[in-house]
Amino acid sequence: MMKKKNLQMLLICGALLVTACKSKSKEEQQSGYRMEGDTVQITDRFLSEKIKVAEARLEPYSKEVITSGVVRPIPTRYACIASPFAGRVTKSYIQIGQQVNRGTPLFEISSPDFTTAQKEYFQALSSRELAKKDLKRKEDLIKNGVSSQKELEEAQNALLIADKEFENASAALEVYQVEHPENMTLGQPLVVRSPISGEIIENNIVTGQYLKDDTEPVAIVADLSEVWIAAQVKEKDIRFINAGSSLDIEVSALPGMVIKGNVYHVEEAVDEDTRSIKVLSVCDNSKKHLKLGMYTTVHFLSAPIEQIQISESALLQGEKDSYVYVQVTPDIFVRTPVKVEATKDGFAVINEGLHPGDKVISEGGYYLK
Question: How many CB atoms lie within 10 A of CB 228?
Answer without folding.
Answer: 24
